[in-house]
Amino acid sequence: MAAAILAVGAGGATAGEEIGYEKDQLAFSAMMAGDWRMAEQQLHESAGELSDDPAHLLNRAQVYAVTGRADAAALLYQQVLQADDIDLVLSDGRVVSAHQIANVRLPAMQYAQR
Predict the structure, then answer these.
(1) Helix (H, G, I), strand (E, B) or coil at 93
(2) Domain boundaries in the chain?
(3) Which domain of life is it from (predicted)?
(4) What pTM, to 2 d.p., does this model score?
(5) pLDDT, tens digit, for every residue of 70-95?
(6) Helix or strand holding residue 97 (H, E)
(7) Cα 74-96-39 angle, rounded to 5 deg
(8) Which residues contact 9 (CB under 8 A, 6 or more apart)?
(9) SS3 content of the chain, % helix, strand, coil (to 5)
(10) pLDDT in tens, 8-65
């Protein structure tokens, strides 16, 4: 399921590319490598300018979920659902909406909080 969260902005992507973002703003490479510490650091560094960006929020939520912080992840998924929806290109090339991703992942985080 991790691949479903590694989102980049919509547009013709090549594998491993963050479309519409500067390199590593979405921590795509670090996440694909499973380097959650580096991914979190990269996401933290770009948080100021991307604080409301759905792709950024979803990737932060994934890092939090994988590192055992379901409560923090759930808050970010809720934030995505409160924002305008956008289409995202996933690491496997599929295009889905940010709301679709958040709606799938939020219940799992709420269950993990029990």
Answers:
(1) coil
(2) 2-112
(3) Bacteria
(4) 0.84
(5) 999 999 999 999 999 999 988 788 89
(6) strand 95-97
(7) 50
(8) 18, 19, 20, 21, 55, 86, 88, 89
(9) 55, 5, 35
(10) 444 444 455 677 889 999 999 999 999 999 999 999 999 999 999 999 999 999 999 9
What span, in angstroms and rounded, lies between the C-alpha atoms of 23 and 88? 17
- Is-contact 31 62, C-beta < 8 A? yes
Task: Using DSSP, state whether 52 is helix, strand or coil.
Answer: coil
Residue type at 103 in one-letter notation: N
Give the architecture (CATH level 2) of 2-112.
Alpha Horseshoe (1.25)
- Identify the bridge partners of residue 9 per DSSP, sorted by sequence position: 88
The first and second tokens of residue 52, run together, are 């409301």
Query: 32 or 114: whose pLDDT is higher?
Result: 32
Residue 55 contacts by C-beta under 8 Å, 6 or more apart in sequence? 7, 8, 9, 21, 26, 86, 88, 98
